[in-house]
Amino acid sequence: MAIMTYAAAARLAVAEAMRADSNVWCIGEDLGRGGVFQQYQGLREEFGAQRVSDAPISEAAIMSAAFGAAMVGTRPIVEMRFADFALCATDELVNQIAKARFMFGGQSRAPMVIRKPMGMWRSSAAQHSQSLESWYTHIPGLVVVCPATPQDNYSMMKAAIQCDDPIVYLEHKDIWANEGEVDPDYHYEFGRAEIRRGGGDVTLVSWSNTANLAADAGRDLSSQGIEAEVIDLRSLWPWDKSTVINSVKKTGRLIVAHESVQVSGFGAEIAATVAEHALQALKAPITRIGAPRSLIAYAPNLENQLRVTGQMMVDAAIRLCR
């Protein structure tokens, strides 16, 4: 296994897919210079401008052009730069791409990977820091994934490119430089969570970068005599209900943590599902941890007031267990 960054892992997956299939191509802003986070570095030099295509600053045009290309047999990787900017192409995604297979009676499809870097990143303020994953889980026809590690950003990208459905692919902006082992032979299956740490005292469920914080929180809790089972969902739709429910039946306690706003967040879906299927196993109330319903400030001291931290998870677990 090789050690590589989160950005390099996805870049390698894209390059391997493009070498294997001439129908795979990329479109977005600034791809010729490697992308905002250098996640396309070197791809223009290897594959040329036709397959690593720089587009005008029009998210709607980018999404629409890629959709048309997908409908006639190619497999576009659509770079939206920021999840916030992708809102300019929401009609194309929600009303056209997500519904294509249904509206055409299965005669057509839209195999697209729509990359939307998400999350809080270095004082980027209210228009560049949002985590909007729960929006897309509400839309039939879309697959929604949130890789948290270099391994997952490699394996999940490979699986997304091969999928015949449109994938909303949410990479966290603050972890491009994170390093980890990548096994090229690991095959990812949509809807399969990863248990990043086993434990019998409390179940801690998360995704994206918050799952990394949850793994750290699990280690801190262990030093205090509390063994948390840390589950990284990885895929929000479909999501791995059985792994979460089985864990809660074992531990009797559930904490769901995410960086996005707690109100109407995907954590509420998890909490409701567990309440429906494992209520009798619960020894304590379900706990949700999320951001307040507030715009994200530019000033670091204010921005930090909105951050979900590992310490929040540690404190919540101690309260539930003691």
How does this model look, in words?
- With 322 residues, the protein is of the alpha/beta class.
- The protein has two domains: 2-182, Rossmann fold, CATH 3.40.50; 194-321, Rossmann fold.
- It has twelve helices and 14 strands.
- It has a seven-stranded mixed sheet with strand order 3-2-4-5-7-6-12, sandwiched between helices.
- Helix 3 (59-71) runs parallel beside helix 4.
- The longest helix is centred in the C-terminal third of the chain and has 16 residues, at 208-223.
- The model has no long low-confidence stretch (mean pLDDT 96).
Tag the structure with descriptive keywords.
322 residues; alpha/beta; Rossmann fold; seven-stranded mixed beta sheet; five-stranded mixed beta sheet; globular
Number of domains: 2
Q: What is the CATH third-level topology name of the largest domain?
A: Rossmann fold
Series of H and E elements:
EHEHEHEHHEHEHEEEEHEEHEHEHH
Helicity level: 25-40%
Name of the CATH class of the largest domain? Alpha Beta
